[in-house]
Every structure is written in C-alpha cells, then in structure tokens.
Amino acid sequence: MKTLRRLSYVALAIAFLQIVFGAIVRITGSGWGCGEHWPKCAGYWFPPLDRPDLIVELSHRYLALFVTVAAAALAYAAWRRRDEAGVGGRGGVLGPAAGALGVVVATALLGAVTIKLRLNPFVIVTHLALAMALLATIVVAAVRAGGFGAPRAVPLSSDAVALAAAAKSWRVARVAVILAFVVLVFGALTANLGAAGACLGFPTCRVYRSDNSALVHLQLTHRVLAFLFAFHVLGAAMMIRKRATAAVVKRA
User: Fold this and answer.
1) Could you report the per-residue pLDDT of 221-247, keeping only the tens digit for each?
2) Which of the four, 37, 158, 165, 214, has the lowest number of CB atoms within 10 Å?
C-alpha cells in the first residue's frame, strides 16, 4: 500500500499544479499561445520559447503529459496488486486509480477540442470540470491507499451511536463535495461567459452593468450557491466537532 499511496500523492501534486497552470493560462489569456496546433505547439514539438503566452500554454501541456504518466503508473501499480486486500474489488484502490487514468485521458482530449473549437467557453468549463473530477478521483485513490490519515478515520466505537455519527458525517461530506463542484462549475461559467462584472456590490447586486439579464442571473446564482456552500461547511464543522467522531475527521 505504501507504493500506491506514494504514487497517488505524486499524481495528486502534479494534477494540482496542472490545474494551477490552467488557471494561469486562463487569467493571462495564453490559451492561444500555441495557436491552432495540438499536440504540437506552434507547429513544433519543441517550439522556440520566445513568447510568454507560448511558454505558459506549453508548460500547461507538459504538465498534462506528466499527470498522464503519473496516473498511468498509479493504475498499473494498482492492477499489478489487484489480488491484495484493499486494492482490487469494491472499495479498493484499483477502481479510482483506473478511473483517474480514464479521466486524465478524457481531459487531455478535451483540451485538444478546446483548441480546435477556438476556446469555446462551454468546452473550457467542461475541461475544468473534468480536471477537478480528476483531482477528486486521485484523492479517493490516495485515501483508499491509506493516505491523509484514512486508517484513523474510523468510528471511535462499534456502538450504534458512533456508527450513526460516522454515517451522518459521511453524508454531510458528500453534500459538501457536490456543492463545491457545482459552485466551481458556476464560477467557471461566470468567468468564461463574461458574467463576472454583470453586477456590482457584495453581497447584494446593487448596480447592474449588463443589459443581458441572463448574465446577471448567472452571477447571482453563483453567489447564492457560494453562500449555501459556505453555510453548509460551517454547519458541518460545528456538527462534527460536537459528535463522537475521530480526531482526523474533525481536523478535516
């Protein structure tokens, strides 16, 4: 399990770095840094590094290659150990490891589609959603491999009260993950469809800057979802701290 845990940590770190570079690509407007070429960049496998936007976009692509290799290594290692306890079968590492490899391939292919469709905003949002799904899948693999203190995240006792508390904490955490993902998608839509500046003021929208009511509604929906997520996380933290839950769960 130690090997799988280390591989999942490596894959997670590279995937996180790739997402950060994806954000840099978006913020700096470097998505067109390699032109219409994919997988080549500006017509070259190793283009001259003479433009900042090209360097940023090319770095993002290289990181995509590295995370693909890391995910493939994790999936292969899990497949080789599929007969070991906790690796194959339901609840094992192999499932999310193989899923991560599938998601990373889909994300890379969608990156190519993003270029071919000239940075279509809806494709960009889908690309980001897949990247975040990849991150989550690798986290699941790491947890199942014993990472992030998973062996200590068990009910403090086997009585009905402790088991019920653990089950409720799990349900609350799942809702938080779903809300976080929805907020992220709506945030990406807000940014890529030009709704970020549709209205001014916080937390309310006091001044409308767009004649397009759909953009204003998108901005407000994103805010409402963000508030719901924040309140849910706050309530979950307060609830979990009061229950008989493992210390590692309370810290998380």
Assistant:
1) 999 999 999 999 998 888 877 765 666
2) 158
